[in-house]
Amino acid sequence: MLNIPLLSDVTPLPLVPAGVDPFETIRNGLLFATIDSHDYAILSSRDTAAALSAYNTLGLELPLAHLAEQTYETLYLKFLELKTDREMARNASQEEPFEDELSLIDFLKNSSDLLTSEESAPIIKFVNTIFYQALKRRASDIHIETHEKKGEVRFRIDGVLSKHIDLDKSIINLVISRIKVISNLDIAEKRLPQDGRTQIKIAGKSLDVRVSVLPTYHGERVVMRLLMHAASIPGLEELGFNTTTTAQFYELLKFSHGIILVTGPTGSGKTTTLHSFLQKLSGPENNVMSIEDPVEYDAEHVSQIAVNSKVGLTFAEGLRSILRQDPDIILVGEIRDGETAQIAIQAAMTGHLVFATLHTNNATSAITRLIDMGVDKFMVTSTLLGVLAQRLVRKVCLECRKLQLIDPSDARDLELPTDTLVAASVGCPACGGTGYHGRIAVGELLMMDDGVQTLMKQCDNDVELRAGMKERGMAFLADQLKELLVLKETTVDEILRVGVKEA
How much helix, strand and coil, in percent to the nearest 5, is found in the chain? Predict the structure, then answer.
């Protein structure tokens, strides 16, 4: 009788022996692992005879061992994840088109019993497939929702949600449990919201994922934000703004102290723009620090702090602590209250370069917002370097767009000639049926100078300030949106969605 030791309380690492495909042997209950710097062939406790037979067939000289059942299951799942990663990498390297919808539907049909089909681990494979397809379609967020009789997966692509696939309600619960496992969340807790973070590797790409789980009336829903690394942060020219605005960015970034604001609604690209500024300025000669909620980019050469209101780490408290760290450049994720605004302005006055975001519709209203928050007007005029109000506009798909005369009512509302030829979205396989592909940034940039400072002192409200800036020739968002429409780069529906009337 063989004397096979039982190893427990260990963290086994998957081992791939030379000349052996371990993915072909796991069906016989034989795994390979490195434990405490020693290599072992691990036998399944469920079917030792089959595992021994596979071991003898291979003729390996690795010592045999058993693992405690729970530890064995952990190692088994690691092997299945490795197998899925290899399959995804193989799919990504193939030139043939990847039919997302068809592959998912076929996958679900072929996996009739998800709970008992342990060999192919369909839930693990399915969750990885969702990540792979989201990455392939350039999605920024994945929404997994539970309804009364079914579940639904949606992707946010180019700022707009689009339905991906419907799922059986029992499957959606297993998918959510799998996401909780990889995010280190409590799978038994279904009554309270949970927030987590994970890192996955799909098709050779490493991806940070921010996970939010929320209980709803019909069950839990999950929203996952796919985050970018520093290498993915675009440069100033890659942000998509026109050449005039980009040149003004370079002028702004020459200052060593003052405050630069970026405004716009959620999802307008403010954080990306600010991190692009930081990457331009960060280096060994500068101490760059940020306070964000949450940290969305893993930025190099930047000390990043995440807001944690549960322990009292607010924007204001974090900003006070940053000022004691001898910073040169500070990024404030969002100015939400008067206290944060006061500290940010004071930091700008005392020799720091401060970047911050603010939720306003346009550039001029950011100034009145700061004053409404309790910041003295003279402090705003003396520290503010510039305000950028930006939007992200979806570009119409060039493969399927059609040209047509603008609707008379739209022409009247947008103050355009009735014979203006505009683009309309259609939808084709190239754009995933949405009619749009990619986005372009537009922004109005208020640059502070002596003339603007004088104008600010004379104006009592945003309307007067905006009228004065128009006389000075400032290009507004509405003008740029209409220019994109005339150039047939986007559609009437898109500029109305973005907010041409508000801008």
Answer: 40, 30, 35
pLDDT at residue 185 is higher than 50? yes
Is 230's pLDDT higher than 80?
A: no
Is residue 108 over pLDDT 50?
A: no
How many H-runs (helices) and E-runs (strands) does the chain carry?
Answer: 17, 21
Residue indicated by tokens 């990498």: 89
**Does the pLDDT of residue 387 top 90, yes or no?**
yes
pTM score = 0.71
- Portion of the chain with pLDDT greater than 70, in percent: 86
Residues 329 and 352: their CA atoms lie apart, in Å, by 6
The letter for the amino acid at 201 is K
In 3D, which of 334, 338, 340, 294 has the Cα closest to residue 316?
Answer: 340
Question: Coil, helix or strand for 155?
Answer: strand
Write the DSSP assignment of 273-339 as a string of letters.
HHHHHHHHH-STT--EEEEESS--EE-TT-EEEE-BGGGTB-HHHHHHHHHTT--SEEEES---SHH
Are 326 and 285 in contact by the 8 Å Cβ rule? The answer is no
What span, in angstroms and rounded, lies between the C-alpha atoms of 374 and 73? 59
Which residue spans within 110-193 are E strands per DSSP? 139-146, 150-157, 160-168
The model's pLDDT over 205-219, given as tens digits with 9 standing for 90+, comes to: 677 888 999 999 999
Other residues' Cβ atoms within 10 Å of the Cβ of residue 207:
17
Cα 299 versus chain centre, distance: 14
**Is the bond preceding residue 294 a cis peptide, omega within 30 degrees?**
yes
